[in-house]
């Protein structure tokens, strides 16, 4: 039994495609934040693999923290965002880059941008590996975006389907 667990999965973005784009994002972030203290805030759990690769593509001194949210049950968003794990320390005066796996309806990022703004950071921007523009309910500014993808439920590279498939090294779609 492989990590696919017997499911048929079609590759949407290969390891090489992901790595090339993340190298570009890392170079842009390194240039834009040069000379400024940067804190990456990974949105758990889906961003853990992206954050690990992105952090290594950024050639700056930086800090890493995590925030946990949930809004999903299975493959459907409940629309109600909750913080399940908060940041480990205050962020006042810090430049924050929220690192997210995918902006779908945009509700999670909208909630987090509003929530973090109340803690008086120097700035908050969003870096999202993926965006599904067809599903947007609110417009969220994504300063650094990896890819726009079609309206399909994707898995792998940190993203799950009911907890499974996060350890695929590529981004895929489950086929019936
Ligand atoms: P939102 O709808 O609030 O923008 O999306 C919130 C979260 O839903 C994302 O951060 C991600 O964890 C999850 N999500 C949205 N679309 C997908 C998808 O296609 N696949 C997976 N595995 N999770 C998704
Ligand atoms: Mg997420
Ligand atoms: Mg999920």
TrEMBL record:
**Protein's UniProt keywords contain Transferase:** yes
List the InterPro entries hit by this protein, alphabetically: HGPRT, Hxn_phspho_trans, PRTase-like, PRTase_dom
Tell me the GO BP annotations in alphabetical order: GMP salvage; guanine salvage; hypoxanthine metabolic process; IMP salvage; purine ribonucleoside salvage
Q: Which GO molecular function annotations are given, in alphabetical order?
A: guanine phosphoribosyltransferase activity; hypoxanthine phosphoribosyltransferase activity; magnesium ion binding; nucleotide binding
Task: Quote the pathway field.
Answer: Purine metabolism; IMP biosynthesis via salvage pathway; IMP from hypoxanthine: step 1/1
| CC cofactor | Mg(2+)
Identify this protein by name.
Answer: Hypoxanthine phosphoribosyltransferase
Instruction: Quote the CDD domains the UniProt record gives.
Output: PRTases_typeI (cd06223)
Cited Gene3D superfamilies? 3.40.50.2020
Q: What is the lineage of its organism?
A: Bacteria, Pseudomonadati, Myxococcota, Myxococcia, Myxococcales
**Pfam families in alphabetical order:** Pribosyltran
Q: Which residues cross the membrane?
A: none
User: Subcellular localization, per the record?
Assistant: Cytoplasm
Question: Which transformation does this protein catalyse, written as a reaction?
Answer: IMP + diphosphate = hypoxanthine + 5-phospho-alpha-D-ribose 1-diphosphate; GMP + diphosphate = guanine + 5-phospho-alpha-D-ribose 1-diphosphate
Give a yes or no for keyword Cell cycle in this entry.
no
